[in-house]
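Write out structure tokens for S-adenosyl-L-methionine-dependent methyltransferase.
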Amino acid sequence: MSLDVHRDLALAEKSKNEPLYAIASDGDHLEAERKRLGVLHKSITNLFDNKLIFAPVTLTKGDHILDCGTGTGIWANQVAKVVPGDVVVEGADISRRFFPSPGENSAVIFHNLSTFDLPTEWENRFKLVNQRLMIACFSRPQWETALQQIRRVLSPDGWVQLVEVQQKHEFSATHPKYQRLLDMLHPMMRSRGFILDIGLEVEEMMQRGGFQNVTRTRRAMPIGEWGGEPGREGWAWLVGAYGGMKDAILQAGAVESGEEFDRMMREAFEESNEIPGLAHDMEVICGQKVV
């Protein structure tokens, strides 16, 4: 039996309600993570021409939308402003730490629960389910569970849309210092069972899991000054993500010290500004529940 299979079996034994978050989001990291989520939402939205809904779904009176892993609820709140007023928008997250406070005006209904264990009474409830950037949260077995749960709560002919960042890149020839960051990141990701070629594997999981009309599209997010404001937003998002994963990267032994980590980040930043062309692919995977 391969090491990968042994690892996946071990991860499968973990609680299905226990994502393997690599990005620190509690204690001193709380506000940094809140800021990162805001930058990330802005970057993705700008990259896709301010489009929030990618699936070819038609929403009518009484339909429900679910945002899994909603975080601050920023996507759900913005969607609630553009869909018909009689469409119900709900957000779910295993942690409520980023939910809007009771005093904030929100048209979204928030639920403190796990994507791995959605309520039984939600079966066939949602016309659209949205989920973004769980690449550093779910192991391969957990992805399988999440997709099963999402399909169960989708209404007949409902759609799911997933937004993920591709990690299977090779920048050695053009941006070797940035490649060193990836070489530092990937051992930590593999140790937790995360999927590097996320778009392709999730697309195949969806097809095996009964979704139909599955599509996968991608756009390149520029990184660095060469990309103008989108490039600066892209770098700000990467800084937040790498900063949040710093402890996990150090624990995995992928870099010798925090000082070396910081130096590698600085060198990659300088390189991204000196050599144009650095970009990361963002992928949107859509699928439909047809019964």
